[in-house]
Amino acid sequence: MAEYPKDPRSTAGQDNGATVPAPPLTASEDRQWATLAHFGGILGFVPSLLIYLVFKDRGPFTAQESKEALNFTLPPTVAAILLNLLGYIPFVGSVFSVLATLVWIALTVFSVTAGIQVNRGQPYQYRYNLHLIK
User: Fold this and answer.
1) d(CA 17, CA 56)
2) Distance (Å, rounded) from C-alpha 24 to C-alpha 62?
3) Which of 37, 63, 98, 109 is deepest in the core (most CB within 10 A)?
C-alpha cells in the first residue's frame, strides 16, 4: 500500500509534542474553584480531589483550599461508605445506616459553612482536620 504524504497544513501551529502550561487563574476564578472545592464536600472527597489535581498549580488560593477540603472530606467519606456497607447486616444494620446519614449531614453542614466563608475570599480551616495530605 502506498502512503500518502501528510498535509503540511495539518501540523501548522502545533508545538510537536511539547506541552503548554495552563494559564494561571484570575483572582475571581481562583476564589470560585476554591469555593467549589468546599461545596463539593456535599458529594464526598471526589470533587475536592479533582479540583486539587487540576488547579493546584494554577491558583494559590485554590491549591490551599482544595487541599483543606480534601483533607477534611476524605475520612468522613470513607467512614460513611463503611457504615453504609455495614448497614446490610441484619438486625443492627439500621443503626449503621443512621450513623452514615449523620456523617453525611455533618459533612454537608461543615462544607457549606466553609464554602460560604471561602466565597467571601477568606481562607477557612476546619476545626477537626487530620491534614493527611501535606
Assistant:
1) 23
2) 11
3) 37
Q: What is the pLDDT of residues 48-96, one digit of tens each?
A: 999 999 998 898 999 999 999 999 999 999 999 999 999 999 888 999 9
Give mean pLDDT, residues 41-47: 94
CB count within 10 Å of CB 24 equals 13
Coil, strand, or helix at residue 27?
Answer: helix
What ranges make up the beta strands (E) of the chain? none
φ/ψ of residue 98, rounded to 5:
-65, -40
CA distances from 107 to 26, 28, 110 (A): 29, 26, 5
Residue type, 101: T
SS3 133: coil
Q: Which residue has better confidence, 13 or 60?
A: 60
